[in-house]
Amino acid sequence: MCTTCGCGAGEVKIDGENADHEHEHVHADGTRHSHDHAHEGDHGHEHSHTHEHRYAPAHSHAPGMGARRMVQIEQDILAKNNAYAKQNRERLAERGIFTLNLVSSPGSGKTTLLCKTIEMLRGKASVSVIEGDQQTSQDAERIRATGAPAIQINTGKGCHLDAHMVGHAMEKLDLPEDSLLMVENVGNLVCPAAFDLGEAHKVVILSVTEGEDKPIKYPDMFRAATLMLLNKCDLLPYLSFKVDAAIEFARRVNPDIQVIQVSATTGQGMDEWLAWIEVGARDTAAKKLATVDALKRRVAELEAQLGAR
Amino acid sequence: MALAEGVLQLIEDAAREQDFARVSAVWLEIGQLSGVEVEAMKFCFDAVTRDSIAAGATLEIIAVPGTGWCMACARTVPMAEVFGACPQCGGYQMQVTGGTEMRVKELEVA
């Protein structure tokens, strides 16, 4: 949590652009230009309701202050983020977009794995990418080099992406229907676990050059993830990393977690990972179709009712 | 820090809707398994509320104990850590069921 790492908010830039300043920025396709950026005011907001008046017991009133009263809030601290995440999830579901939130420590090979994944999906599926880093747009540029559209979010002092930033980045990417959206979170195994971005699944990447006990050292992240990719498996012959122990630790904090062993360098396990993505993408598209069909049936019913009048 | 800012946002939203100008105390419910460091939260809360309507407010933390469901024992048991073993059978087939909350419960306002 950020209470532990003390990261700050503010200074967030999406493709080099501040929230409400005129600024040069880079488009998903890599072209740069500058214009005004209006904040679209269509975000919902949470509000508290029930309230109760009661005088605090035996409190004297401080000078200049009225009677004290208690206000019931009963709201989750993450409620605001969760509301934005819900909006993102609804927008993605409407368009049948399968979204993954890739999380790991810095240096686990997320970007390399992502580039390899995009290359292997070329011609089969359309992939868009949202890149999160504290500074620089190097990762977005690496992704664009593969031909996929990418938007860079710089979180400044922030240690994680939140649903509000991702919502804005989604507006900038022209996401095709039934496509894939990969969000590469800031390298951090702590804070991103708590912030839902509206993704279908969190995918945690653990590389075999790290310790096999990371799942129990950072349990929140491994508990939040659906899938663990064990990356850099081509290096196993040179390391003392115990694969079984890593998987056992991950299952201890999350009995349902799925595991795929991969190497972005040699391509080992990549077919299994792509098959996993394909199943998810197919389910997402099928759900969208079911919703569309349900809406069409409802429209037909309503039209029939109108016709009968 | 982001969580402390989340608390302040909830307070400011409530202030607009319910028309109060000062907050003198804040009660948070923090689950034992939520991963929130209470000391760090207190420190960050003081930092983010400086110059806000909650400046100088006391922060009261209500700790909520962690509980989990042990699949082997088929019962709810206390849990001290998210990856903890079941105190009854020692197994790790555990699902966390309580103690992950981070909620603003109530405020004392004027």
SSE topology sketch:
The complex is a heterodimer of chains A (309) and B (110).
Chain A: H1 2-5, E1 13-14, E2 23-26, E3 32-35, E4 69-76, H2 79-94, E5 98-104, H3 110-121, E6 127-133, H4 138-145, E7 150-154, H5 163-172, E8 180-184, E9 201-207, H6 214-217, H7 219-224, E10 227-231, H8 243-253, E11 258-261, H9 270-308
Parallel strand pairs in A: 5-8, 5-9, 6-7, 6-8, 9-10, 10-11
Antiparallel strand pairs in A: 1-7, 2-3
Chain B: H1 2-18, E1 23-31, H2 38-49, E2 58-64, E3 67-70, E4 75-78, E5 94-98, E6 102-109
Parallel strand pairs in B: 1-2
Antiparallel strand pairs in B: 1-6, 3-4, 3-5
Helix pairs in contact in B: 1-2
Structure description:
The complex is a heterodimer of chains A (309) and B (110). By secondary structure, chain A is of the alpha/beta class. Chain A contains nine helices and eleven strands. Chain A has helices at 2-5, 79-94, 110-121, 138-145, 163-172, 214-217, 219-224, 243-253, 270-308, and strands at 13-14, 23-26, 32-35, 69-76, 98-104, 127-133, 150-154, 180-184, 201-207, 227-231, 258-261. By secondary structure, chain B is α+β, with helices and mostly antiparallel strands. Chain B has a domain at 2-65 and 98-109: 2-Layer Sandwich (hypothetical protein PF0899 fold). Helices cover 26% and strands 34% of the residues of chain B. Chain B is built from two helices and six strands. Chain B has a three-stranded mixed sheet, covered by helices on one side. Chain B has a three-stranded antiparallel sheet with strand order 4-3-5, with no helix packed on it. In chain B, strand 3 and strand 4 (75-78) form a beta hairpin. The longest helix of chain B has 17 residues, at 2-18. Chain B is elongated, with a radius of gyration of 17 Å. The chains are: A alpha/beta (309), B alpha+beta (110). Strand 4 (69-76) of chain A pairs antiparallel with strand 6 of chain B, so a sheet runs across the interface.
